[in-house]
Each structure stands twice: as structure tokens, then as C-alpha cells.
Design brief:
The chain is mainly alpha-helical. It has one domain (16-106). Helices cover 69% and strands 4% of the residues.
């Protein structure tokens, strides 16, 4: 039972905006937002997970996805943004340092 809970938590965190911007490379996060046709030019490292999620919310809707299914994904992104806010707060000292050292994650 404990192993299943850890596996479930790992799968849930794999899509988390904070994990996408803090743990993965800057290029991977930038490429994903570029592929989704996000209108964001850069993602600051401080509260980057929340910003990443809002960039996904404001990305263009793909042509092959109908509006009903696309809008049903919005609550999931909002829940992820709330969880990312908690994780971003916990990682605040690290992300402040990374913002000063490396600057924002540039998308374009």
C-alpha cells in the first residue's frame, strides 16, 4: 500500500508546474511552453510553477481538440497551480538564488 501511494504521488508530481521548471532543464520547460503556443515570453524563477501553469492556461487551443474537452482540463491546471504555489513557497530561498544567478527562463 505504501509503495502504491509513493507511485501515485510521483505520477502526480510529474506534471506539476514547479517540477517542470525547477527540476527539469530550462530548455525542456521552454520547449514545452513553445510547443503549446503559450503567449508567455519568459517565466521568472520565483513562483515559476504557478507562472508556468498560468502560461498553459493562456496557451492557444490546439485545432484537433474540441472546446468542451479543452475547457474540462482547466480545473486540473488550477489545482496544479494551487499545489505549485505551496511547493514554490517551500522552494523560495532556492528560486530567489537561481533568479539572481541565472535570470528568468526565456521562452522565445
Amino acid at each position: 500500500m505504501r509503495i502504491q501511494a509513493v507511485m501515485l504521488a510521483t505520477l502526480m508530481l510529474a506534471g506539476c508546474g514547479t517540477v517542470q521548471t525547477v527540476v527539469r532543464s530550462d530548455q525542456a520547460a521552454a520547449d514545452y511552453l513553445k510547443d503549446k503556443k503559450s503567449h508567455c515570453g519568459a517565466v521568472p524563477r520565483i513562483y515559476s510553477g504557478v507562472t508556468y501553469d498560468f502560461c498553459l492556461l493562456h496557451a492557444e487551443r490546439p485545432d484537433d481538440v474540441d472546446a468542451f474537452n479543452y475547457n474540462n482540463a482547466t480545473p486540473g491546471v488550477l489545482v496544479d497551480a494551487a499545489l505549485s504555489g505551496v511547493l514554490d513557497t517551500l522552494l523560495l530561498p532556492y528560486t530567489i538564488y537561481k533568479q539572481q544567478a541565472d535570470g528568468s527562463i526565456v521562452i522565445n
